[in-house]
Amino acid sequence: MQVSRPGALAECRGDIWLLLATYLNLRLGVLHPEEGEEPVDHASSFSKDQALLVLSWVESGRKFRDVLASPLQPSALLRAGAAIHTYCQDPSGRTAGAVGVALWTKFFVSGFQAASALAREWMDACTGSTEAGLQQLGVVHMSFVRVCTYQDQQSRTQRAALSGALSKALRDAPNVASFLWQWISLATGSLGALHVRRCLRELVKKECSPLAWLVALCFELCRAQALTNYRTPDASFTLPNFRNHVRHILEQAVESVAHRRCPLLWRLYIELEVPALHCSQREPLP
């Protein structure tokens, strides 16, 4: 069965670990978890046994399609697990693909708690504030969030684990768009919206991040759309009030973010104000 997504394979650039991790992420429906979309091949049709078959291909010396068409060999899975463990022993070997394969192997062989412990161990090892350390920390967070997302899809009782993983990822890597998008997608109801607003406000104050402001704006637009679709005729929320709310957020954004860092914020503010300016200056026809 062919499974594809535009641009997914091109990003692998001959990295066999990344190619294998990307294949698993595609089949499990978590390549881009922040989008919240079903994969081409539904995740429910790709079982744990099939995932183990994919992982057992490592160091097998066999063709990939032959491994998938044959029964699972425990010895091959043990050999594959030992190979990826050895490869990741050296911190320099913990690339995006290798970390992804290693965490999936630990998850499917030993369970979620074992994968969580391994991810925490590697996160703790990313000490210091060097660019390489921060990049590797982001790699571990991304792979672990995918594992948590898959676990959440299979059992909603693990929603706390996914929320916790995203919160920690945002503390360590606050400017990663996918973490922000997926984190706000978990918010439900008025209390969830208040929590998101509070956290985003703290984030923009701490980081002065244009990305956080843009996510905050998109979150408010999505909330407004939901309220517009479901509000009753006598609801106190109105679109003019929402326009003022968005204007207030944009004013805060353009005051705190340098224009050279995010001209898009200024453009959004201008496009919001120009129609209102034309309406206020429009004179009635004689």
UniProtKB/TrEMBL annotation:
It is found in: Nucleus. Keywords: Nucleus. GO terms for biological process: negative regulation of RNA catabolic process; regulatory ncRNA-mediated heterochromatin formation. It comes from the Eukaryota. GO terms for cellular component: catalytic step 2 spliceosome. Its main location: nucleus. Belongs to the NRDE2 family. PANTHER family: NUCLEAR EXOSOME REGULATOR NRDE2 (PTHR13471:SF0), TETRATRICOPEPTIDE-LIKE HELICAL (PTHR13471). This is Uncharacterized protein.
